[in-house]
Amino acid sequence: MEKKPHFFRREFPPREVSPVSLALLLAAVLLLNALLYLYLNKFYTSSGRAETDPSLCPFGYFRLGAVKNCSPWLSCEAINREVRKLKRVGEGAVKKVFLSEWKENKVVLSQLTNSELKEDFLHGLKMLKALQSKHVVRLLGYCEQQFTILTEYHPLGSLRGLNETLHIPKYKGMNTWHRRLMLAIDYVSIIRYLHSSPLGTLVMCDSNDLDKVLSQYLLTSDFHILVNDLDALPLVNRTAGRLVKCGHRELQGEFVAPEQRWPYGEEVPFEDDLMPPYDEKTDIWKIPDVSNFLLGHVEGSDIVRLHLFDIHAACKKKDPSERPSAQEVLDTYRKVLTLLIREAAMPGTREML
């Protein structure tokens, strides 16, 4: 009779971790946390998102390129004498835009298109002068008499071209969830800055659809975002009971906030005088849609969206008073960035411990 083989299961004793190994592991975790702290501290301060900017000059002055000294904003005479138009690169309802040259530097010259919109043009100039910061395109000069504004040139253009830019071989390395989330943080930082600006609470009214929003912002060569078009920035003043309305026409579509749409149904014709005003929470409603574009569809972007789900759901509350402030959204974005960088830097550490 054939004997059946007997199999024996070897019992392995539980693996013991020596105190030295555990100490080294904890030291590595602490070191990674310290490096992460230093990185994020650098990101929040010196990467161009800080409120104060050591490269900014006193009011009425600018610094361009590698030049160390500040120059006064160019006057009408200086613009006419020293700035040379190269080609027209854009035109909107309010102004036409020319790529130009000043002292071997590429600059942007904007001129009024329609005399009926000169108040919008001058309002944009007023905002540009008053809001100079790391969040706003740099003003180089202006001429009110000739309705001309001179600003810094950014070759990557508006945010509308972000995905095309990221397909250029030179910038493919930037097409990551990390870099795209940083762009979203830049965008929310600008909204927060406008809502708590030196002038008060300002609403970004040129934002009736995604394409229009993206056209208001520039992408810098070091991959940050600047607001460029400030022609439609009405002021909310709750103390004085002053709210805003973005234009005098009926707004439609899911992109604009519910309170921006005609509330009385199709049976009642739209009348601007009957349209209720609203506040800055219209900007909060639009943040998830803009961020969704900025995050794109790269490896890891769905994980970012998952972490942002709750704050984005809060942004889409129908009641404006229930939506978070721009500061609350910004704080959440930064916490998510910190969490995801930590997880990427120390995968499996929790299991090891």
Strand order of the largest sheet: 3-4-5-7-6
Mean pLDDT: 88
N-to-C SSE series?
HEEHEEEHEEHHEHEEEHHHH
Radius of gyration: 26 Å
Number of strands: 11
Tally of individual helices: 10
What structural class results from the helix and strand content? Answer: alpha+beta
Q: Which sheet architecture does the biggest sheet show?
A: 5 strands, antiparallel
The general outline is globular
Range of helix content: 25-40%
Multimer state: single chain
**Low-pLDDT ranges:** 45-50, 349-353
The share of residues in extended strands comes to 5-15%
Span between termini: 53 Å
Can you give me a brief rundown of this structure?
The chain has 353 residues and is of the alpha+beta class. It is built from ten helices and eleven strands.
